[in-house]
Amino acid sequence: xxxxxxxxxxxxxxxxxxxxxxxxxxxxxxxxxxxxxxxxxxxxxxxxxxxxxxxxxxxxxxxxxxxxxxxxxxxxxxxxxxxxxxxxxxxxxxxxxxxxxxxxxxxxxxxxxxxxxxxxxxxxxxxxxxxxxxxxxxxxxxxxxxxxxxxxxxxxxxxxxxxxxxxxxxxxxxxxxxxxxxxxxxxxxxxxxxxxxxxxxxxxxxxxxxxxxxxxxxxxxxxxxxxxxxxxxxxxxxxxxxxxxxxxxxxxxxxxxxxxxxxxxxxxxxxxxxxxxxxxxxxxxxxxxxxxxxxxxxxxxxxxxxxxxx
Length: 310
Known about the structure:
By secondary structure, the chain is mainly alpha-helical. It has one domain (2-124, 154-278). Helices cover 80% and strands 0% of the residues. It has helices at 2-16, 18-27, 32-60, 70-96, 99-106, 109-121, 127-143, 157-179, 186-204, 207-216, 220-253, 255-261, 265-277, 283-300, 305-308. The radius of gyration is 20 Å and the shape is globular.
């Protein structure tokens, strides 16, 4: 069990550092289309390479290929499209707000997942969970910088909306990972998820016009060289490592505990923003982060049936 817990923690840390990489890419002049496309295509290439190695190994050892039925494939592709939507909305939020604030907005997936569980799986919303929602909202206000010495931080309404939208898609992604395709090997499950991501990114930012423009201006080689490090970093830490770890570990750990462990993404993002980007963290912001983390832990602590109803 400890091994699976550590894998979910590692996946959360991996997601947590993405906003810093995105900010660095924006500083180099790359756009949202550049960043999301590089993450999707480089990540897909890396993951499909792992998939070929996986199947080659099974062939060498005379093992039967593990295949997903059509229904499972479609569900995993839709899960991937939700993951692609996370990147689109979250990176748009990072473009308009500080990275340390964007991650606060993304963390709203915790209470959004409660509502989705109620609507989809008919899981009752107990008074304790309503208290959790209230604490998260208070923590968000404190962590956003609206109060305290970061009150001058620029917060755009569209940036906040994109951050909350990212939180919604993250909730969908986590729930789907806990319920869909669990009988498949992690690399097979993730390969269908990453296909959904690529389809979503390609639909929003068709690559053909960009490629034609780069060829006509003879800038393809320069562009590829410049985007390569960001594409590999974002692809590996955003498209390869977390989906593999979550696909393998979340069904064994459970969605509830995974939401606790995934909260490590929050301090990871804030710490990276502080160390790499030089974004300051006020006392009130730190208190907000601690409130959100405490709320996530408390609402998921297993207890007696009577305790769960209060």
